[in-house]
Design a protein that fits this description.
The complex is a heterotetramer, with two copies of chain A (about 325 residues) and two copies of chain C (about 250 residues). Chain A has about 325 residues and is α/β, with parallel strands linked by helices. Chain A contains 13 helices and eleven strands. Chain C is about 25% helix and about 20% strand. In chain C, the strands form four sheets. In chain C, strands 2-1-5-10-11-12-13-14 form an eight-stranded mixed sheet, sandwiched between helices. In chain C, strands 3-4 form a two-stranded antiparallel sheet. In chain C, helix 2 (about 30-40) crosses helix 8. Classes of the chains: A alpha/beta (about 325), C alpha/beta (about 250). Chains in contact: A-B, A-C, A-D, B-C, B-D.
Amino acid sequence: MKPEDNKVMQLKDAVSKYIKHGCHLSIGGFTLNRNPMAAVYEIIRQKTRDLHVYAHSNGQGVDELIGAGCVSHLEIAYGGTGKFMPTCIRFKKAVQEQTIIVEDYSNFQMTLRFLAGAMGIAFLPTRSSLGTDIINKWGFPKEFRKQHDLIPNQKLVVMDNPFDGWCDTKKVVLVPAITPDVTIIHVQMADFRGNCRIEGLTFADVEQAKAAKRLIITCEELLDDDYLKNDPDRNQIPFIHADAVVKVPFGAYPTACYRYYDYDAAYMNAYARAAKNDDAYQQYLAAYVFDCPTHTHLLDKVGRGRVESILADRNRGYAKNLDRK
Amino acid sequence: MKPEDNKVMQLKDAVSKYIKHGCHLSIGGFTLNRNPMAAVYEIIRQKTRDLHVYAHSNGQGVDELIGAGCVSHLEIAYGGTGKFMPTCIRFKKAVQEQTIIVEDYSNFQMTLRFLAGAMGIAFLPTRSSLGTDIINKWGFPKEFRKQHDLIPNQKLVVMDNPFDGWCDTKKVVLVPAITPDVTIIHVQMADFRGNCRIEGLTFADVEQAKAAKRLIITCEELLDDDYLKNDPDRNQIPFIHADAVVKVPFGAYPTACYRYYDYDAAYMNAYARAAKNDDAYQQYLAAYVFDCPTHTHLLDKVGRGRVESILADRNRGYAKNLDRK
Amino acid sequence: MDYTLRELMTICAAREIKNGDIVFCGTGISMLAAMAAKNINAPDSVIFFETGAIDSKLEDIPLAVADPRIMYHTSANGGLMEAFCTMQNPMSGARIVGILGAAQIDLYGNLNSTVIGEYDAPDVRFSGSGGACDVASFVSRSIIFMKMEKRKFKKKLDYLTSPGFLDGPDGREKAGLPPGGPDKVITDMGVMGFDEHTRQMFLIGCFPGITPDQILDNMEFEIRTDRAVEIAVPTQTELTLLREKCDPHGLIL
Amino acid sequence: MDYTLRELMTICAAREIKNGDIVFCGTGISMLAAMAAKNINAPDSVIFFETGAIDSKLEDIPLAVADPRIMYHTSANGGLMEAFCTMQNPMSGARIVGILGAAQIDLYGNLNSTVIGEYDAPDVRFSGSGGACDVASFVSRSIIFMKMEKRKFKKKLDYLTSPGFLDGPDGREKAGLPPGGPDKVITDMGVMGFDEHTRQMFLIGCFPGITPDQILDNMEFEIRTDRAVEIAVPTQTELTLLREKCDPHGLIL
């Protein structure tokens, strides 16, 4: 039962209250956009271990959680951040070294799995991946699945269309629902009760938010209740799904937040360089995560000049003349 | 293949081009709100017959189509307009006199059926209606279904959850997709290519629009291409789904159109009175539909004073002091 | 205290709603009951419509669940998909109280709002399920408004539109439905509940001046009446708030 | 004419796009090909991203499919659900052209973008499907960028991520997939297509200075080369528009 009173919390408290060792976690955003990075860094600082993470294409956040050793299991469609890391580097390393167990889906399948969780149904059908190894090859074998109540007994199930050729369809694959213990999303605006407004593409954030048993929202702007309710056509997540609301300006940094700031190409290039070398990566973690007690400290370390350089043109939604080499 | 050029048409031409006798048709809106009434009246004027109509809770539009003898088959969840007609009157009469064949679903099931059509999947699952006569009693028997390619071979299919108790679910009912020949929706704003912006609740209009083979859009305001694209977070239907765009101010009248006008209680009460009596209903049809070559003529007949009385307060979205007795 | 039967029924339903409840409203008296709860005893309840509006301000009473009045000052304006997903969602669905009406009800709280007579050749056709079957399928509890008449309290429904407890204590589970089911039946003569073991309807209380026998006379099936008490009449505060804040123009009352 | 191999490959892909096509873009060269088509030969093609943006203006080249640059001046900003439903929808899906890349390809145009080696204990891990499997499953045709190397043109894929024609002409139908499949493979040495009867890859043409044998030397499997012609080099107009309008800062080229 989600309480109706003021849900505003400090990030440290929200993370320590809801994200325990072994937690099944999903985070919002997509590759280099609107990842809840401030929350990711806080999870790393709190040294949470053995996370079971669900992602479609959450690049930067997932790679940093894996790199810091927080993740043991991962269900994912894509690990990358586009040009900066065509394949996520710490993810690649962890899979190759078998320090995490990964199970592959497609982006649509992960989206449907979150939607199934959000709509309270055990599975949804699609025709995507019929005939492929996404169906044939499982990351978690049968015995493992039997031992874990939070994982369905099968990865995917292929079935005949009982409506006999309806929609020219002979077969479908059923994808099982995901109901994470916790979802964390970063949004442009929220109010103290947890109503949310996302600007630009929503990715699968709305589905991830509603699928979860607990929802932590970090936001650029924390508004009073009337502000968002005065234009409800723009709001996607009503407060009844929310458990914690945390104001964190630049909370998606170094990933982008449409209409607020762009991704920081310099940070992400430096990250990719560090990620290729174990020692350099430990130095990165020490300097940019563990030595920064809060996200504000990280921004200070990067320097306000760099942060100002990525501020978005409110009309276009990104930093028009940003150097992105 | 939907052409990319200017899709703007006259209502008469859009209806005669796309809505033929025997057409499978769905119309947008809900009970007394945003029904595409101008298009409904045009269909009645064109004396289109034998329509197979799909509706969740489209009250006024469906009742008028049935009353005018345009409908032979109806798949529906609810026929009513709230206080004005708790049960649609011509619908009730037609079912009791067996002049139409009706098949019942729930609102969620109809929504899922349109969504299935929109997402190109043969069926979707839900737990709604398990154990009820919605599953047991079919409007269209097996033999009828076999003879009609546009109707699936079964009404609904109950199946066991193959993910073995996942989400505390033992059984689900599968609802088959709807792919109407044509969907008609009425929206607040569209551009000449067919991008749409709906204000207030969208009901199932977006799903109905994307499920259809052809989409006719009537709109309060017809805008140039840039206007809607300058704020795409507010748009729900991209132009690639559109076939015809028709500007019809007050196109949902006598039902409401959020932020533009309220429902006309006087019209709807008069309609309900007329609908109770066959002669009075024929007089209503003659006066308000057949004698009005266009929707503008209907508005003139009602009188501009009445129309002005229902104009919405732009902030609240409805006519604050409207007499609704 | 002067009050009408309709006012009493509305207030009886409103009293069942608690802070934190999410109230699914249909049209008419059920919507008024939700508004009354919010204005009288449960200011932190949330009003919710199947059409997609959640936490509507409701400055003015809507006359249908698609009335533009429900779209004003909500938490989010979506559509039917969002609304029904919220209902079927185990987290949010568990907090929803459905308020329903119907043409017929049986001993286990199953409802008919579709037809009287044969489905293929009905004597009387009603509106149909709308979202009623969905809400009765998904949510943790529902409150049902019914008029006391023998033809409405039926041994066997002509058509089972919305599931109550189906055929008994394990009826919902056998059918594959989530737990939940009807909680109260509010009539024009008294209020019924459902026994937690047998899941059969029983009489909770009579309205002032009504006896259990009068109620039984208006039903086709028997229910237990040994636990019945007299229902408290509306207070002056309840009536004033209902009349002045919820329906000042008497559109529903 | 002076041009780089990457420019030639981009322009070869752009030439495959027609007015009215809806182009599904991935990151990098595939996005640039879509921009090039729109700026050169198919101004009425529509650029579409799996993240939910449709008909983006793309004043500036995005560096990922979630780049905020794709959200500016679109027809509608939705999310992944909207995007993939548009792909699976038979009406809109039939108009979509997918542009994909991969680590490995086989004779029938099946792609691997997941692992080299065993799935449980891979030698090399790649990004995974993302939306590639979805687009390859749903849309009517796709264009694939590949580098010509023996380890990339494989007799047997280590992992089949995205379906081409699977194991032959009726492979997709047997598996339950919609019709469609790969249309062209654009490499750094030439362009391949798929025979309409056998659904096997064949050589359409070589880039200037490249022979069919050189191409075969860089493949683990054999393909027919008897229909191969020389590919037309980029025109000055194509190059100018590509360089000046699409990628003026050389972020992808």
